[in-house]
């Protein structure tokens, strides 16, 4: 049974078209179900480096560029409600640096942001390792997407 979760995609100050939205919504929902978490709404906001840097400074007091920031608005033991901000400029640059197709990198960052909403951290080496394993595992389930 597929949960009814509001999964929205928005752009802030950039032109960007996310392909395969229905498939991605189903994929995100399946990750949430497999993690045995409930969710109400998740917003993905695709933006520029400048926009995400302003958020990083204002809310996290960090003066650095980043590819993703997740904000969880729910209380403990309540269904997930959150925003995931993703810098398209960072994704493009990182995909070149890592030698990965753009779509692979954006899907990895989308799932990375979701894992943060679910409660995973990546500040310690062992947390980063678990996060990467989870990303790889869930990305392998998305291998059917073609565009």
Quick take:
48% of the residues lie in helices and 20% in strands. The protein is α/β, with parallel strands linked by helices and 147 residues long. The protein has a four-stranded mixed β-sheet, sandwiched between helices.
Q: What are the main properties of this structure?
A:
single chain, 147 residues, alpha/beta, Collagenase (Catalytic Domain), 4-stranded mixed sheet, 4 strands, 20% strand
What does this structure look like?
It is a single chain. This protein is of the alpha/beta class and 147 residues long. Helices cover 48% and strands 20% of the residues. It has a four-stranded mixed beta sheet with strand order 1-2-4-3, sandwiched between helices. It is globular. The chain starts with 5 loop residues before the first strand and ends in a 7-residue tail after the last helix.
Mean pLDDT: 93
CATH topology description:
Collagenase (Catalytic Domain)
The helix fraction, in percent, is 40-55%
CATH superfamily name? Metalloproteases ("zincins"), catalytic domain
Strand and helix order:
EHEHEEHHH
The main sheet comes to: 4 strands, mixed
The CATH class, by name, is Alpha Beta
Strand coverage percent: 15-25%
Structural class: alpha/beta
How many structural domains are formed by the residues?
Answer: 1
Topology:
Blueprint: E1 6-12, H1 21-34, E2 39-47, H2 49-60, E3 68-72, E4 80-87, H3 88-98, H4 102-118, H5 125-140
Parallel strand pairs: 1-2, 2-4
Antiparallel strand pairs: 3-4
Helix pairs in contact: 3-4, 4-5
